[in-house]
Amino acid sequence: MIKKILDEIKLIIEDKHDLNSLDFSYYLEEYLIEHYDRMYKENPIVTELLNEELPEICAMMEPGLDDTEFKKLLKKEYEKVMKQITNKHLLN
Questions:
Q1: How do residues 29-77 score in pLDDT, each as one tens digit?
Q2: Whole-model pTM?
Q3: Is 32 exposed, middle or buried (0-12, 13-18, 19+ CB in 10 A)?
Q4: Residue 92 has pLDDT above 70, yes or no
């Protein structure tokens, strides 16, 4: 579950995802809510990291956050999470 959403975040950052930024923001926000418990069982630290800032970033898309700014903020959070995963060996 965690790897799947991280892969999808990477795709949107690289402009390779099928969804546009607004649709992806809805998708990501919903994914984090719907799969929180399963993700938490998989890895509580990474789940909490993903839920720290990403829901707020997604919420900013609705009133019209610039696409470039959205991806910039996503990339910053993605890199922060990936750094923690790498440094602490949090995912298998």
A1: 999 999 999 999 999 999 999 999 999 999 999 888 899 999 999 999 9
A2: 0.91
A3: middle
A4: no
Structurally, the chain folds into a number of domains equal to 1
DSSP string, 5-66: HHHHHHHHHTT-SSS-HHHHHHHHHHHHHHTHHHHHHH-HHHHHHHHHHHHHHHHHHTTT--
The domain in which residue 29 lies consists of 2-88
Contact 70, 62 (CB under 8 A): no
Residue 52 tokens read as: 């720290």
